[in-house]
Amino acid sequence: MANMEKLTQFQQEMLRCNRCGYCQAVCPIYDVLRLEPITARGRIQLLRAVSEGKLPISELVSYYIYRCTDCQSCRVSCPGGVRIDQIFASARELIADNEFLPTGLSELEQRVRSTHNISGEPSENRLLWAENLEVKPEGLVGKEGAEVVLFTGCVSALYPMAYGILQDLVEILEAANVDFTTLGTEEWCCGYPLLSAGLPISDLVTHNLDRVKALGAKTLVTTCPSCYHMWKYHYTPDSLRVMHSTQFLAELVEAGKVPLRPVEMRVTYHDPCDLGRKSEVYDAPRQLMESIPGLDFVEMEDHGENAMCCGGGGNLETVDAELSGAVARLRLEQAQAVGAQAIVSACQQCERTLAMAARRNKSRIKVMDVVQLLRKALSEEETER
Question: Is the CA virtual torsion 372, 247, 127, 130 positive or negative?
Answer without folding.
Answer: positive
